[in-house]
Amino acid sequence: MSKYTVIGCGDIGFRVSKELLQQGHQVQATIHYEEGTKVPQSVGIETIIANFDYREDVPDLPLHGHKLFYFMPPQGGGSSDYRMLNFCQQLTPDNSPSKIVYMSTSGVYGDCGDTLVTEETPVNPQTSRAKRRVSAEQQLQEQAEKLGFELVILRVTGIYGPGRLPLSQLKKGHEVLRPEDAPRTNRIHSLDLVQICLAAMERGKGGDIFNVCDGEESSMSHYFMAVAEMYQLPQPKQLSWSEAEKGMNPLTFSFLKESRRMSNRKLIETLGVELKYPTLEKGLFACRTIS
């Protein structure tokens, strides 16, 4: 039995924790608020209430020798991840995990146009949220070098899956770019992401970075249209680029300014992962039957 810590027990953190428990391991996980502890505790996860926004609200975390998954996103605002800073202040030579798998984002690459993005592509964050992710990666890399633990970074594309589909947005009349104007990107099904996280902990080596995606290129417009068709919802209104720039929510529009065609070759070959949902069609169909 190994000891695991999960920082950020949201959807992915909860699913990873449950799988580890079923394998017979001991799992502790941090929860932002007390009301979020009931479900994890009901399946046997040891919960720790920890608000990483403020250093004084982070309790002492026993981490020495643990295998640790870090799923907590950065705070909103700024170009540095202060939640990661508050986490790293917990790490000492006497309280250091043996290995960390950090879930980052493909947004660290910025806009790559039609270039195929591999793990060798330099980071080029162009938004504040992407800069916060680069900040988090760098902080962990510094700690790994200083304290000697293994660090594996997963640069994850758009996550979809059961409970993570844009059904409410579509019902509210969410608008999309015309397909011919929409940039290309990739996705990953949440259940595939869970198995990838576990494989990265088991087989990833210190210093490894993996792009995490399903290998199928599409666009945000195609995604919303496919979800609408699958769930028999009205198709979203299509906007030209100029119409979207004038009328679309600025945060939503910012996601549409960047194109990233991601390669998952290293992920498949190095970790030996066989994706259950290598296409959006298979992944959406499965969302109707799993929870």
UniProtKB/TrEMBL annotation:
Which residue numbers delimit the NAD-dependent epimerase/dehydratase domain?
A: 83-213
- State the superkingdom: Bacteria
A GO molecular-function descriptor: aldehyde dehydrogenase (NAD+) activity
Gene Ontology CC terms: cytoplasm
Protein name per Swiss-Prot or TrEMBL: Nucleoside-diphosphate-sugar epimerase
